[in-house]
Amino acid sequence: MANIAEQIRDNFETEVSTALGATYSELKYKVNPAQNDFKTNKKGYGVVPREAAVVEGVIRSVTVDHVFDVVLTQDYHNQKSDAKQLVSTFELFDKMNDISDAVVSTNLSLPGTVYVVNLLSIDEPEYLEDDNVVVLIAKYIIKYRTSIDN
Predict the structure, then answer these.
(1) Rounded to an integer, what distance in angstroms lies between the CA atom of residue 142 and that of residue 69?
(2) Are 70 and 99 in contact (CB under 8 A)?
(3) Whole-angstrom Cα distance, residue 47 to residue 67?
(4) Which of 4, 7, 9, 98 is 20 to 30 A removed from 87 (C-alpha atoms)?
(5) pTM of the entire predicted model
(6) CA–CA dist 135, 128 (Å, integer)
(7) Domain residues of the chain, as ranges?
(8) Which of 25-39, 50-64, 101-115 has the lowest mean pLDDT?
(9) CATH class of residue range 4-28+46-147
(10) Three-class DSSP labels, 60-79
């Protein structure tokens, strides 16, 4: 059986994939999106576990606040202005809102383990000029609990 952080990541990726639809595919490189080859598909996604901290909780359990990044990429094709670049950026912000609606309402389909999913922040968009790709990363904090077995 997978550990809790891995289960959360797997369920998170499923929710993200569903919210985005078939035009998006999982990124090969999620930690460093610039390493991806964007020649075939410039619309991508990934979920990356980040820092975690034990927080106050209930007796006989460990409660953790764990940050996960959601990484989205999308292409743009500027010609005489940056208008298409901005359109792609706004589309990614809209997609991130769709993802937030999905994951906050379902608690990642892990009842009894995941108690709260909150959008912490959305980073400034990064533009990979050589590939004509915008990268948007959102940080979510997942509160989950595990029992202490004696």
Answers:
(1) 11
(2) yes
(3) 10
(4) 9
(5) 0.91
(6) 8
(7) 4-28+46-147
(8) 50-64
(9) alpha beta
(10) CEEEEEEEEEEEEEEECCCC
